[in-house]
Amino acid sequence: MEKIYVSTRDQNRKMTSKQAILEGISKDGGLYVWPDIDSVQIDLHTICEQSYKENTYTILQPLLPDFSEEELKTCIENAYGHSFSSPDITPVKKVDDVYVLELFHGPTSAFKDVALTLLPQLMSASLKAGDQKAMILTATSGDTGKAALEGFKDVDRIGICVFYPHQKVSQIQYRQMATQQGKNVKVYAIEGNFDDAQSKVKSLFLDEDLRKKAEAQNVILTSANSINIGRLVPQIVYYFESYKYLVNHGAIQLGDPVSFSVPTGNFGDVLAGYYAYMMGLPVKKFYVASNANHVLTDFLTTGVYDRNRAFVQTISPSMDILISSNLERLLYYMSGKDTKLVSQCMSDLSKTGRYQIPDTLLQKIQFLFGCAYLDDKKTKETIATVYQESKVVLDPHSAIAYQVAKDAKERPIVALATASPYKFSQDVLDALHQNSTNELEAMKQLQTICSDPIPKGLKALESQEIRHKEVISVEQMKDVVEKNMEALL
Ligand SMILES: N[C@@H](CCOP(=O)(O)O)C(=O)O
Predict the structure, then answer these.
(1) 0.95 exceeded by the pTM?
(2) pLDDT single digits (tens) 330-342
(3) Is the distance from the beta carbon of residue 403 to the nearest atom of ligand 1 less than 6 Å?
């Protein structure tokens, strides 16, 4: 089978899509990319006539060519057949003059479900016949963790450890993870922030000693974060789906360009949009919408990526990130696949916390990518204004995308709504000037003004016992992974 994926840091490290999914991250620290992704041009006319599941097949088949037709169609059916509460999977709503793409109708009420209902299927199909097993290590700032736990729960031959920053996720996000059931799952709070968790997880994938111990047990260590190409590619689909909506509702003619505003921390979601663009989606501009951790806004404005700054805890915790992993993939493509430049930038980042790209490259990126950020005060004001004017309740992450879309000059524009407001009930109520005693009560209170009911999974939290209580240091992460390779698999 053709090895179409290479590392962002070395063209000669080649993998099939199944191998890339199983490895998660390249052994040289780079991320897997398909250099010729733009050789695939998706027919928009077909997209506008097909269902979500059919479009998923059309888009993913060329990206995952070593999956048989039957394998891929079964994976897609298992992922989207019955787990989403909306028949459209990712419905679109017009709110004033912005189209809001709702990505939170999956089992855990965040956009991560779109990929994490499918990745476990792809991973299982990629495992070699026999008794090869996989141990998933996931760092989360709040949403990925729960979606990964739910997706991989009790999947045969796969175990999962999730690491989240202690007391730096919302109360509901915490409960979602701490109550997780399943015989193959473990959840740890770590003393540190998301960047500490993600950096340690990445280093564990490259840890020779751990890798050897895993190999001895026929276990492969891999990732459910968007550094894994199998996590990223399912997210391309909803960009095409929103385009389908706009065409089929007469907002645009086939071929007209559209802009997107994407709330992002790890740069995975907006990168999936860029992949859609490379595969033929007509896009005018992508707006990278950030919170007070605006390292991406600064980078896109100046060309200097500098994580040497205070880490701010915000009401949009899923975006509380200063090391934005997937930017590496954008640099790879935008620099004309210059693996030397990418390697140099990433080496500078790990040594000094900073890198700078050439002006020509910055200008090329700025031609397609805009940026802006909102602090918590502005985010709350947006939640209040949108509710007052449109009776729509947005979660803090989606509110940031919405306001950045509002401030942009391009129309039509789609703002990605990445989480249900119920996941951040107390902060949302606070923005609406309502008091609440705790997050579970706040959810009930929010229900009185939200058009959607409390999602099933969130409603159940009240009666579920806390099963995962351990708080560990970053240094202990390797030990718990080793321990769980035996215990969970
Ligand atoms: N925002 C994420 C952080 C991890 O990012 P991912 O793109 O690797 O999933 C979260 O909510 O955990």
Answers:
(1) yes
(2) 999 999 999 999 9
(3) no
